[in-house]
């Protein structure tokens, strides 16, 4: 009966939508499912430490299980991001799925705490590559450059929205179904295995390198420029994207790897009820993730990021100052926690979107990989630091740390992140393809460009050629 219903749905879908539209949808799903799996697998360690009691792990080992995936992710980002600039986004995404599948499988079959740590590192390598590859591929595949941030926001919604909600949902269902704890944590990872396998099949069948990427590789071969030659003028942009992602991930992963414990600390409830609170917190944030793609079509990525960090900082300041009072009012505590998570979702989108948009296509994987790796370094710091604070019972200190981190991120966004639109990105990318990376950076920081001013890029190239001619004449 279920199979008949599925078949009927697919038949109706085929009648309504052309095959070409279906291919686009499946291709988008193939790009996003890796990030969904990543968020699911990251969320798993929020619960596994409670169930894998047969390992008799110490607090330090439990903390290392949480941090292990980040260590692998940093390696994956640094390696797979630049590698995708050479081997292509399609092959890079497929390799990420293969590595993630192996890591998830070993996690489910782990025979000791140390084996689980090793498996999580391997999983992290595959998942780390997802960030620069999926975001860069999504931006490059957009029909209009101005749609890049929106499409990455949709990618983030699919991954961070549904992926983060899926893990507590699966855990709660199995907990309520009475699955033995020694099997429950393995099945949590088992679902990750299935997600990874689906992503691998979808990517192999549907993913292709974008036309923009193909054209950028032709331009790179023409000018014979190295990655460093193209990327070095972007030092200010790299400081902004890498630094903001570092600070943001301290907050995001530090909180989300420990909020099951934060909620159980906040109320005299069973662990199942704590899982349910985590699930509700993930579901309540989805509206803000749905809002983000629309918001990015109306407001620049830089301003969206600033709004997110300001809101997150203010909400955590309230949680820090009034923690003792709010913990007695669990509903109000939950409301403020959801408020800060909702604001947090805005820089969650923009740190990924800006890193995937502002760099030339020929080195976009490397630049996004560096930025994402710095993010995961922040995730490692946040996860370990917040876990230690949680173990000491210093929950208030966690919220103070988030407030300070958000304030620093606001400052770095204001100083390092360019203010641009789709025309600015097109002009800057054209300059980079013409072998003018320094002029491309100058264009990037020149502000949004109106449609009638689209000749700016050609003027920059012309001016630069005139300067070179003058220098050569003076030398002669």
From TrEMBL:
Main location: membrane
Transmembrane segments: 67-84, 91-111, 154-173, 185-206, 279-297, 304-323, 329-354, 366-385, 397-415
Leader peptide range in chain numbering: none
GO-annotated cellular components: plasma membrane
One Pfam assignment: MFS_1
Keywords, sorted A to Z: Membrane, Transmembrane, Transmembrane helix
One function term, GO molecular function aspect: carboxylic acid transmembrane transporter activity
PROSITE patterns given in the database record: MFS (PS50850), SUGAR_TRANSPORT_1 (PS00216)
Domain Major facilitator superfamily (MFS) profile span(s) in chain numbering: 4-421
Entry annotated with the keyword Membrane: yes
Keyword Membrane among UniProt keywords: yes
Cell compartments where the protein resides: Membrane
Acidic residues composition-biased segments: 461-476
Region (Disordered): 447-476
Name listed for the protein in its UniProt record: Putative metabolite transport protein GIT1
Source species: Symbiodinium microadriaticum (Dinoflagellate)
Gene name for this UniProt entry: GIT1
């Amino acid at each position: 009966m279920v199979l008949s219903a599925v078949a009927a749905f697919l038949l109706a879908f085929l009648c309504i939508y052309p095959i070409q539209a279906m291919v686009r949808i499946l291709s988008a799903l193939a790009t996003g499912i890796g990030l969904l799996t990543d968020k699911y697998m990251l969320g798993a360690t929020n619960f596994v430490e409670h169930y894998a009691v047969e390992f008799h792990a110490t607090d330090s080992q439990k903390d290392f299980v949480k941090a292990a995936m980040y260590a692998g992710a940093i390696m994956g980002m640094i390696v797979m991001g630049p590698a995708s600039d050479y081997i292509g986004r399609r092959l890079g995404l497929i390799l990420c799925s293969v590595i993630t599948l192996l890591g998830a499988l070993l996690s489910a079959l782990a025979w000791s705490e140390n084996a689980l740590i090793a498996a999580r590192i391997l999983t992290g390598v595959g998942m780390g590559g997802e960030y620069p590859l999926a975001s860069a591929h999504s931006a490059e595949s957009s029909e209009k450059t101005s749609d890049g941030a929106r499409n990455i926001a949709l990618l983030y919604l699919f991954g961070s929205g549904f992926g983060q909600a899926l893990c507590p949902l699966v855990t709660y269902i199995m907990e309520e179904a009475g699955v033995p704890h020694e099997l429950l944590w393995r099945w949590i990872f088992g679902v990750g295995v299935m997600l990874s396998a689906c992503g691998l099949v979808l990517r192999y069948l549907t993913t292709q390198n974008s036309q923009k990427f193909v054209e950028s590789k032709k331009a790179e071969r023409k000018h014979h420029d190295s990655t460093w030659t193209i990327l070095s003028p972007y030092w200010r942009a790299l400081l902004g994207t890498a630094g903001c992602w570092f600070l943001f991930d301290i907050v995001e992963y530090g909180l989300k790897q420990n909020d099951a414990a934060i909620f159980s600390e906040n109320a005299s409830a069973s662990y199942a009820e704590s899982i349910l609170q985590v699930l509700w917190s993930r579901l309540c944030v989805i509206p803000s993730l749905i809002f983000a793609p629309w918001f990015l079509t109306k407001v620049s990525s830089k301003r969206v990021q600033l709004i997110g960090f300001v809101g997150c900082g203010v909400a955590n300041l309230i949680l820090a100052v009034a923690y003792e009072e709010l913990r007695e009012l669990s509903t109000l505590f939950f409301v403020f926690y959801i408020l800060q998570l909702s604001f947090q979702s805005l820089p969650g989108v923009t740190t990924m979107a800006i890193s995937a948009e502002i760099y030339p296509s020929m080195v976009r994987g490397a630049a996004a990989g560096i930025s994402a790796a710095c993010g995961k370094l922040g995730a490692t710091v946040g996860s370990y630091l917040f876990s230690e604070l949680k173990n000491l019972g210093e929950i208030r200190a966690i919220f103070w740390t988030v407030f300070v981190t958000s304030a620093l991120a606001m400052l770095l966004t204001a100083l390092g992140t360019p203010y641009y639109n789709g025309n600015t990105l097109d002009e800057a990318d054209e300059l980079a393809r013409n072998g003018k990376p320094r002029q491309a950076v100058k264009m990037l920081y020149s502000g949004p460009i109106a449609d009638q001013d689209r000749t700016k890029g050609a003027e920059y190239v012309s001016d630069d050629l005139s300067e070179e001619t003058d220098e050569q004449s003076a030398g002669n």
